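Appendix B: complex inputs.
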Amino acid sequence: MFPSFTSFEEIADNYRAIFFDAFGVLKNSERVFEGVPQLMLALQDAGKEIFVVTNDSSKSPSRLAQAYVHPDRGPVVKSDRVISSGLLARDFLAHKVRKGWVAYLGTEASAYYIEAAGLSPVPVSELREEHAPKALVLLDDEGFDWFADINKAVNWVRRYNTPVVIANADLEYPKKDAEVGIAIGGVGKLMEHLLRKTFIRFGKPDPMMFSFAFRQLMHEHPDYSLRDVLMVGDTLETDIRGANAFGVDTALVLSGNTSAEQFEVAIRASGIIPDFVCESILT
Amino acid sequence: MFPSFTSFEEIADNYRAIFFDAFGVLKNSERVFEGVPQLMLALQDAGKEIFVVTNDSSKSPSRLAQAYVHPDRGPVVKSDRVISSGLLARDFLAHKVRKGWVAYLGTEASAYYIEAAGLSPVPVSELREEHAPKALVLLDDEGFDWFADINKAVNWVRRYNTPVVIANADLEYPKKDAEVGIAIGGVGKLMEHLLRKTFIRFGKPDPMMFSFAFRQLMHEHPDYSLRDVLMVGDTLETDIRGANAFGVDTALVLSGNTSAEQFEVAIRASGIIPDFVCESILT
Amino acid sequence: MFPSFTSFEEIADNYRAIFFDAFGVLKNSERVFEGVPQLMLALQDAGKEIFVVTNDSSKSPSRLAQAYVHPDRGPVVKSDRVISSGLLARDFLAHKVRKGWVAYLGTEASAYYIEAAGLSPVPVSELREEHAPKALVLLDDEGFDWFADINKAVNWVRRYNTPVVIANADLEYPKKDAEVGIAIGGVGKLMEHLLRKTFIRFGKPDPMMFSFAFRQLMHEHPDYSLRDVLMVGDTLETDIRGANAFGVDTALVLSGNTSAEQFEVAIRASGIIPDFVCESILT
Amino acid sequence: MFPSFTSFEEIADNYRAIFFDAFGVLKNSERVFEGVPQLMLALQDAGKEIFVVTNDSSKSPSRLAQAYVHPDRGPVVKSDRVISSGLLARDFLAHKVRKGWVAYLGTEASAYYIEAAGLSPVPVSELREEHAPKALVLLDDEGFDWFADINKAVNWVRRYNTPVVIANADLEYPKKDAEVGIAIGGVGKLMEHLLRKTFIRFGKPDPMMFSFAFRQLMHEHPDYSLRDVLMVGDTLETDIRGANAFGVDTALVLSGNTSAEQFEVAIRASGIIPDFVCESILT
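Resulting structure:
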């Protein structure tokens, strides 16, 4: 069960479907890595199904898909191949809430996931008693005033016991120059701690993310099995842990959160063991 | 989203499939509640699919199913309708480990889940370096010497970084006279704490448990949707939280872990809100 | 060890020194409760020593003391009887840092505790590499831009491994109308979680707070023992837990965080048992 | 604030009092390190006060002191210079419980700390309702049946809400060949987790341990200040964190829990920064 160090090309050859994490694998916070659209096309031309499995709920899947464009051949990922944790939140809201107002912390673009569930989004800053919101959804770390709105949200939940959904389980996300940004999942942790509650949390490492993508894959290829799928990620705690638990093979890449210097220590310390390790998907 | 207090019979009428937790709903640690086999038959006679969704990995599903017997009509639950967290552990081992020795804490009967994955179980007490186990699985709180074997297991994982799988996420289980037993998931917590690792953990509230049962249901009834399913449980933190997150309707019963005196406080404190509350499934 | 319900007057009679928590006992976030300065004078006139033991590090002890004023007889608490958690932070900085810049999150008034240690405070917003700060101190939840400065502080500690001191261990503080404010200790929890570190944390329930006050008491009254001291607080988790562990008698009042409806449940749930319970110090 | 690598002899020269951790500094689980009694004598001959500050509550201070014997000059540490966390537990029991039965998990020798508080110890295995114990104290990991007695203790606290005291905050202790033993503090963590309570916990890193030793020092040398004291320990999380927070200088030795290979990583990861690092106290 110990990982072998190989080129991504060689590994990919053995799978019929590849799930990619986005940040640190395909892109950073500024742009898609050079060569990625070409690689995505090549994999698809070789008959492989590719999915992007991401905790990014800042925009709709179709807007997330727009990032991956080939200079000559245009968009290379279809919207339905982008599985964001926001989709699980959307389904939860659609099944469990059904109608009415839903409050949120995030940008306007992130409120897509509330609207897509047939519900009416209201930002926490504008929330009033008349809304009687059915749920509060944490979508993105931007688009609101942290001091005012986090305090308001905490007091709202204390008073009305409104269910809270975290649509992005990540604590942080990589920015440029080795900096990180506090993700909305981190803000959620603070709120959980203050309220002594555990919210409903969607996103990797929850295996449901991979189950969602796999169901979509099975829909088109009912003969595929877990053995046909490789998950590629840069983070042991989310990508590799979750895909290991779901039961598919995993490849750790060193182009994001986990560096070449630290990956062996990190694997040993965490006990989360990928099947493969590659420098990046481009080498 | 606030629960209404109703009779189980009335609620059940609106669903085509019912998932039951075992302990506190269908049985206690000593025996199946009186009237339960009759109710299970009646539901099936009325055309409903019933599943038992349990974190009990102390025996195989077929042995767990043997508990539910009607005095005249014999066994009332088929083995493939008992979804134990051990099955997810079994699939994980089958997909990720494939062959060799797997160490375990638990009774001999619980080792079934290792054998069912095509692997060779060895109890921690007999574990030697030559086994070079591919994983350690925590299956049951009985069948081993706590002091000797938990200490041995902790040191083994420290030295060899063996992956650890908890096949039963529960911290405790109800016994008679309002006593509890420390479940193997509680022992796992202690080991995680000492080793500063988070193990791979199977069982409710992980929505994968419900996904597993739902896939089985879909296999026979491809036209059923999440809306057709009701999960019935006695524990907010596992049964109701997990099924809420999976997106099916939920009924809390007050015949087990959650008492009539405390359920309102518990719902308010946890923020975990079932769709219905019933005294028991028999009233 | 179970609490008896009594009037504060009766209890106080048996002690030579009384330690009071501030928020919820003597005052709320807006003003000192009516009758409190009179009571403080009466206790002192009866020969009792009184101390205010508070996690409030938003201002210096002398400015905190200014809140307690009798209409006729003026200020009723001397500065050296106000023991704030900031004083422990001040001593820590004085002993362990000695000189140079110290960054902080909080208001300008809260930076008192850095200056009092003979060090130079710089707000996180103005922090530059040239400062090479010896420590970062979390002092107050106001006086800075949460989004910008918490993110900046997290990245600073990630990069430079600067020691972090939380000068107020509280997660939240009571505001009017049963609302709470997120305290700087709550912000510290978020930062600890993101950085996977445990910061140096001063304030109740740490028994050092009571030890600090007791040392001051012993200085003037070397013959007093722990048996002579009563701690009065409104919060089981901080006031009562800490004073119990320090070994002095404790009285819970129901005029703040803990309500008359919930105190029995809260004691049972937490296992933190005060020696006495009073409605307030004024009844 | 970054540690310099020096010989212990050189460092010790600058202090008038030295506090030593026991395990990993002066001894291992089998015996006192060769040369330690000689060093202790030499330090005392040079006019320095030495204390042993330990979380070991398995025996009384006088029995712990017996371990340090010079071949020619006999015992080298007086009983009152051994500060064990059990002493804080003893004082707590004496002040807060006063009389009656106190249940315990541990060996008979560890029950010393209950008797020294003037109370009557009863092992959990023999505990009956008639005892109506005032507290449960976790003293040592040996001397009881883990499965039977931990389960019994958990159910006892659930039913009677008996206050629980952990007299040794350590999660684990070093044994030979790089193995560890699960300490009673680890067992306490499991019980806290199951019962959703936080017990009263004595021992390093709680600064009260150092405060206790310092008070004893001040008794004989009222002119000494924190600046005169050096704490020497092998564990960042307990010895160094606690003494840093108490405000005395700290030296990390690499003869126990922290190895020469990992100490830099461990300091960076934890943010716990000793003033000095030495290979051992003997080099």
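The first strand of chain A starts at residue 4 and ends at 5.
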